[in-house]
Amino acid sequence: MLQEAGYLEVSKSGLGRLSQTVCRLTQKGKEALFAYEQGLRLLFAEGVPAQDEEQEVS
Q1: DSSP SS3 for 17
Q2: Is 8:29 a contact under the CB 8 Å cutoff?
Q3: DSSP-H helix ranges across 1-58
Q4: CB distance 32 to 7 below 8 Å
Q5: Do 36 and 57 meet the contact criterion of CB atoms below 8 Å apart?
Q6: What's the confidence (pLDDT) of residue 18?
Q7: Which end of the chain has fewer surrounding CB within 10 Å, N or C?
Q8: Cβ neighbours of residue 54 under 8 Å, at least 6 residues apart?
Q9: Is residue 26 within 8 Å of residue 3, measured between CB atoms?
Q10: Which of 21, 20, 28, 22 is nearest to 4 (CA)?
Q11: 7-26, pLDDT tens digit by residue?
Q12: Torsion, CA 26, CA 31, CA 37, CA 38, rounded to 10
């Protein structure tokens, strides 16, 4: 899924039990990750409103 979206490059090498898979973020993937991180930082800097703890239980 990430590979098809262009965020990740996957390369495989070797044979049998000695095979190796390497995953690497592409530039597009790095930019998307950075944007996601910035969004989370803004969210937590502003604070997430807590649910009212005094809600009546019926």
Answers
A1: helix
A2: yes
A3: 27-46
A4: yes
A5: no
A6: 87
A7: C
A8: none
A9: no
A10: 28
A11: 999 999 987 788 899 999 99
A12: 170
Selected residue with higher pLDDT from 3 and 48? 3
Instruction: Enter the DSSP assignment of 8.
Output: E
Structure tokens at 23: 């995953």
- Cross-strand bridge partners of residue 24: 9
Contact by Cβ (8 Å): 9, 26: yes
First and final C-alpha spacing in the chain: 44
Distance, in Å, from the CA atom of 13 to the CA atom of 25, rounded to the nearest integer, reads 18
CA dihedral 9, 13, 16, 20 (to 10 degrees): -60
Amino acid identity at 7: Y
Higher pLDDT, 58 or 31: 31
